[in-house]
Amino acid sequence: MTGATTRRTGPEQLRSRIAAELERTRARTALLTEAVDEADLVRQHSPLMSPLVWDLAHVGNQEELWLVRDVGGREPVRRDIDDLYDAFKQPRRDRPALPLLPPQEARAYLHTVRDKVLDLLDRVAFTDRPLLADGFAFGMIVQHEQQHDETMLATHQLRAGPAVLHAPPPPEPTARVDAEVLVPAGEFTMGTDTDPWALDNERPAHRVHLPAYAIDAAPVTNGRYREFIADGGYEDPRWWSPAGWQHRQEAGLVAPMHWRRDGDGWAYRRFGRWAPVRDDEPVVHVCYHEAQAYAAWAGRRLPTEAEWEKAARWDPVTGRSRRYPWGDDEPTAEHANLGQRHLWPAPVGAYPAGASPLGVHQLIGDVWEWTSTPFRGHPGFTAFPYREYSEVFFGDEHRVLRGGSFGTDRAACRGTFRNWDFPIRRQIFSGFRCARDARPEESQP
Predict the structure, then answer these.
(1) pLDDT of residue 10
(2) DSSP 3-state assignment of 396?
(3) Residue 273's closest CA among 167, 427, 152?
(4) How far is Cα of residue 244 from the mean position of the Cα atoms in its chain?
(5) Whole domain around residue 178: which residue ranges?
(6) Residue 253: its pLDDT value, please?
(7) What totals of helices (H) and strands (E) does the chain contain, helices first?
(8) Is the pTM value of this prediction over 0.90?
């Protein structure tokens, strides 16, 4: 839902679009939770992840807290479960031991909450109150549920057993992609003041000046990453930061997560199916330390968050920052690999319609891309509507990821959207691209 489109539509059109987004999102939640039996729903497939049934009831509880109780001012549906589904009070590793709602009861709870939300949506006035302006609270809940859908998709990738999710393969490449793109020195607008559903850490818009730099025109591929492995990259501490080398040793890292040796090559486990690693696909399931080590081995570095966003949004003809690399229109199947439409990254060159004006490809979708930037607020940041969404995570412990993955929904992905995680995490759908400082002769106008 673009800011321009939202502001042109009246309240009835906005109600219809919100209802459609709520329905579309809930259908994805149902797909992810109905694909497995009840034993799988309540099982913890990794200490890094919640049981699927916890995520299921949690999205309903957040919908109740913000829409039924806060926006609607109505009586609680289930006040007794608030603490059970508070992500800050209940660490993931401990959630299986909690008295969670069983699957049937959790689904009934979601159904009751949704009925109340749809009744509220029919009556609510979209006033200037920040939670109601442009339907922000509803948009926040859509994005929250889609983010948990991606988390549940990552849990599916970690579960043992036969495949239960199905999707067609991504499109084949149709465009040749350059190795790198030079981004000239100058200012651009980072962040947003106008996107109605942008979250607090995306705001406010501000001007940033960057020196000239070069950035990979596509994410680093499996083929290039295999060269790093074959050259002993995991055995050579020269390429790793001290923290990265310590983690590599302690965790026994030898390749991306879900890879195994397959004769002279490698295979990759995708949602219960093994397949040979394809060289022209973006590498996925690598942590920040692995990305940083590869970049050092390649004589490059990871881009800063500002460098990533300028490459993704800046239009050199108009000087304006776009909502997406291709413009302000919502992503379609022609632009990007998003929304679980496919179950792995698309080969480089598969989405020429999604390239930025500078010719940088696949910035949106496919893999979340690690940047070198610690997660902090933009200048002038204000927490809204609660500190726990962003502000409590600010600091050097987390690194920013940008761009979304094949498991990210379009509602929770745009050129300003910011994700973050610990540098050791790789169960997420994470990859990267590299950058370098421009040489003096390249920096001349």
Answers:
(1) 86
(2) strand
(3) 167
(4) 23
(5) 168-445
(6) 98
(7) 10, 12
(8) yes
Specify the pLDDT at position 4: 38
pLDDT at residue number 9: 64
Last residue of a domain, one of 140, 158, 176: 158
Look at residue 2 in the predicted model and tell me its pLDDT: 40
pLDDT at residue 365 in the model: 98
Concatenate the DSSP letters of all residues of 17-71 into one string. Answer: HHHHHHHHHHHHHHHHHHSS-HHHHHS-S-TTS--HHHHHHHHHHHHIIIIIIII
Q: Do 284 and 342 have their domain in common? A: yes
Question: Of the residues 104, 130, 158, which one is the last residue of a structural domain?
Answer: 158
The reply to whether 88 falls in a domain is yes
Q: How far is CA 433 from the centre of its chain?
A: 15
**How far, in Å, CA of 287 to CA of 392, rounded?**
22
Q: Which two tokens stand for residue 352?
A: 């020429």
CATH no. for residue 146? 1.20.120
205 inside domain:
yes
Low-confidence residues of the chain, pLDDT below 70? 1-9, 445
Backbone phi, psi, residue 245, to 5° = -65, -40
Neighbours of 299 (CB within 10 A): 8
Distance between CA atoms of residues 400 and 137, nearest Å: 24
